[in-house]
Amino acid sequence: MTTVSTPDHPLDRIARRLPPPALVGLPFRLCPPPLRRRGMQQLLDHLLGELLAEGEFDYLLDRRLAIEVSDLGLRWVVTAGECRLLVLGEREAADSTIRGRALEFVLLASRLEDPDALFFQRRLEVSGDTAIGLTTRNLLDRLALADLPLTLRIVLNRAGRFARRIRSQREAATEPAGQVTASVSRPAR
């Protein structure tokens, strides 16, 4: 068996040299919580405004959903208000939690990874009232990418492709030394 290697892409080199996620998340964690909440509030209002106006998030009335980006140490808790989602304090209790690494959330948002695969492979987890988490996931899955501004679609696509590179580089770094990643078999004589 012989090892087949592929040329090293410049983005692969960048992906290998990225600092650990906890360090990447540090600027966000140092940002005052009210500012983080306001930023998330504006993002949700902008991206989900139409669904909110149609009452699609009414199932969150008097219920709380937490979104945890575990490797960055970030958490948001949201609930439904009058035609909008309200972002509460990060320490608020939640009825349901969707938890995962930043890469998985980027892949989910970019639609470059099947949402069911992310959940079934436990790269994204739902805990607590799973009906809230799964309803939210299904609702967001119905959000048409074509309805998003072109600039945002491009950013999401490129971020998703880069997230795949980061994941593959991290997986390659954790493979045991000497393991053959691709092989060519030769017939026995």
Order of helices and strands: EHHHHEEEEHHEHHE
Helix content: 40-55%
Q: On the 0-100 scale, what is the average pLDDT?
A: 85
Domains (count):
1
CATH class division? Alpha Beta
Uncertain residue segments:
180-189
* CATH overall fold name: Nonspecific Lipid-transfer Protein, Chain A
CATH homology group = SCP2 sterol-binding domain
Alpha carbon gyration radius? 20 Å
Strand order of the largest sheet: 4-3-2-5-6
Q: Please identify, by name, the CATH architecture.
A: 2-Layer Sandwich
Structural class: alpha+beta
The biggest beta sheet is recorded as: 5 strands, mixed
Global morphology:
globular
User: How many DSSP-defined strands?
Assistant: 7
Measured between the Cα atoms of the first and last residue, the distance is: 14 Å
Beta-strand content bin: 15-25%
Count of helical stretches: 8
